[in-house]
Amino acid sequence: MERKIVIPGMQVGTTEQHKQGRGTFREGDKIFANRLGILEERSGYLNVISLSGVYDPVQGDTVIGVIEDVSKMSWLVDINAPYPALLRVDEVPWRVEYGETAKYLNIGAVVVVNVAFINEARNIEVSMKGNHCKKVEEGIIVDIQPSKVPRVIGKNGSMVSLLREHTGCWIFVGQNGRVWIKGDDDKMSLLVEAIHKIEREAHTPGLTSKIEAFLKGERD
Amino acid sequence: MELIKDGKRLDGRKPDELRPIKIEAGPLHRADGSCYLEWGGNKIIAAVYGPKEAIPRHIQNPTRAVINAKYNMASFSVGDRKRPGPDRRSREISKITSEALENVILTEMFPRAMIDVNIEVLDADAGTRCAGITAAAVALADAGIPMEDIPVACAAGKVGDTVVLDLMGEEDQEGQADVPLAIAPRTENILLLQMDGHLTVEEFDRALELAMNGCQQIATMQREALMKKYQSFEED
Amino acid sequence: MNISSIKKDYLYRLAKQGKRPDGRATSEYRPITIERGVVNMAEGSAMVSIGNTTVLAGIKMDLGEPYPDTPNKGALSTAAELIPLASPDFESGPPRENAIELARVVDRGIRESGTINLEELCIEPGEKVWVVFIDIHILDYDGNLFDACSLAASAALLDAQIPNERFEMGENRPLPVQDPPISCTFVKYNGTIVVDPSLEEDEVAEARYTVAVDKNGDIRAMQKGLSGSFTVDEIRQSIATARQMAPTIRKILEG
Questions:
Q1: Any residues with CB less than 8 A from the CB of B199 and at least 6 apart, and which?
Q2: Which of B24, B115, B121, B122 to mutate to test the interface with C (most CBs of C within 10 A)?
Q3: What is the CATH superfamily name and number for domain B17-235?
Q4: Nearest C-alpha of chain C: how many angstroms from A141?
Q5: What is the pLDDT, as a whole number, of residue B234?
Q6: What is the pLDDT of residue C54?
Q7: Which residues contact residue B64 at a Cβ distance below 8 angstroms, ignoring those fewer than 6 apart?
Q8: How large is the ipTM?
Q9: Residue whose C-alpha is closest to residue A73's, from A95, A93, A89, A91
Q10: Domain C22-254: what homologous superfamily?
């Protein structure tokens, strides 16, 4: 299926031929897009992938969060979504005694976590026990629009590999629009500029070669 | 002053003609979604922030998002300078705007959250509340807010004993009736409707028909503005 | 290590090497664009962007009574609105101290440079004068509101016409405006001083300094803000930088 831009209220299919996926709603036997995005079909489901807007958490996403509140047995984590997520003491790699939570993670601490659970009431829980999960102790965090994350990663990771190769920096892209990078300050500076350039020019053709040229120091 | 002469209005338009409209999606950097709109002499900018946690907590609704639209006119947007801050008119418009937008936004997807919609009139030339809703709708779509449709608004009225579409400044001041209308264009459901002045039932029907028609024309422009911003998306 | 210290430490480390996060030099401005006459209803208007910061200033004029101690002069009033659409951190409501300080500093620069010949705005001494209202709306906040607002106010004044027609006092004519001041704002963090702070730099700034310079390079207004401090040398150095940058910015203003 061709990648097609759709807007809220645009009909994208019928219930006879398709199944209703993310970003759609149904009226009678017609399926409509409920947001601005790209229409895609996957395993018979019609999905609208958002091109803009705040981060919409999906179970299984690995994200970069910031502790915004500390309780005796849990933390509240800002994951750049409309709601903070709950991180319980039994979902961290340490053995935390009751009331000792602040010793391990205090307000403002930055962590890589997995989105473990979301229910209909939009209660979100995260876990620090998965792969890649850890506390961020060095490097910097760059904020980008969540909808631009696929662009920064690239098809099969092509863009993020390009960025690593040309800057020698370590890069981790959170699904929620936060990017963690580590490296020499000059290289990180260049990388930050490259990331913002990808963001600005996400909709233009030939982006990968443009970024490569930029990283090599060639002029546009 | 003769508002209609030989079937032409003060600005040369026919009774069923819209003023020139220009819509741009996403001009602002900080906002989650935005829209800049010019409509006749009107210049409006709308910005959306959210969905985000509703604070203070007492405004939270446990089952859906709260839509917080605020309409404001800049001091310099009108003939006699307007004192800054909301007046009763802006507060009323803010309320009916929130209610119109709420109808199409899938608020149940975001319980306990809120969506802020800020509408700022930078230059005013009659029909600002309709222009405001039209711009806010584009900003909401630009922000990726889930909606069943993109609302659109337009007014009709009566000047010189003729029912006309889209009143301009002098027509609004000297005219005999003003009917602002907002609809969800796909279903033609009415989301906002006000009227002041004097109309017979037939005249009102005519005004409604003109305004509906105007709305559909503008809905096409809204869609074009959004497509234009995202059209060149490609993967290489 | 927390989110605010991560950003701050990075900016501090860069500063130690005289570098800034967006690659600019310490005395480099972001691109400045000025567009005059954007609001028809206003007597004068201008939209200014410095990088991604965009502000809009509108001039409205009205007839009023002069202040008792200046019966022969028109009046000037400046206000700034940090409207919620410009930033997730701006709240709606009456102006708070940030907006008030911003407006007063912009006002001071214009007033002390004699940009508007207030005596020419006197219609009947002691009875009737023109009152000039400068209203500045922030539309997109990405750092350095002081300079963006000052430029927008000055450009709007240069665009303004006295609305004689609306008051049935004859024909409109240009507002008598000359030589607006150029304001340059600096922030200090980790011992480094940079001009035209971006949003990130505004957020880690320990101290802020704005100086308004006239066309001869003389000083017309100053404001030090935030709770950090400057040394005398740092102030002198900043003044020198401002005097150096002002002519280029003035060229953009005067178009």
A1: B158, B163, B176, B177, B179, B207
A2: B122
A3: GHMP Kinase, N-terminal domain (3.30.230.70)
A4: 7
A5: 47
A6: 98
A7: B107, B108, B110, B111
A8: 0.88
A9: A89
A10: GHMP Kinase, N-terminal domain (3.30.230.70)
pLDDT reported for residue B233: 58
- Structural tokens at position A162: 């390009």
pLDDT in tens, B101-142: 999 999 999 999 999 999 999 999 999 999 999 999 999 999
The candidate with the shortest Cα–Cα distance to B37, out of B28, B46, B29, is B46
Q: Does C139 touch chain B (CB under 8 A)?
A: yes
Residues of chain A with pLDDT under 50: 219-220
Taking phi over 0 as left and psi of -120 to 50 as alpha, with beta for the rest, B232 belongs to alpha
Among A58, B81, A147, A123, CA closest to C64 = B81
pLDDT at position A52 is 85
Tokens of C232: 């005398």
Please name the member of A52, A54, A206 whose beta carbon is closest to the beta carbon of B142. Answer: A52
Map out the domains of chain B as residue ranges.
17-235
Sequence spans of domains, chain C: 22-254
Q: What are phi and psi of A192, to 5 degrees?
A: -60, -45
Q: Which residues of chain C have pLDDT under 50?
A: none
Backbone angles phi, psi at C98, to 5 degrees: -60, -45
The token pair at B215 is: 């709305």
Q: What is the pLDDT of residue A4?
A: 87
pTM for the model: 0.92
Residue of C nearest to A189 (CA): C21
Cβ contact, residue pair C19, A185, below 8 Å: yes
Q: Please, which chains are in contact with C (at least 3 CB pairs closer than 8 A)?
A: A, B
What lies within 8 Å, CB to CB, of A157 at 6+ separation is none
Residue B226 to residue A7, Cβ atoms within 8 A: yes
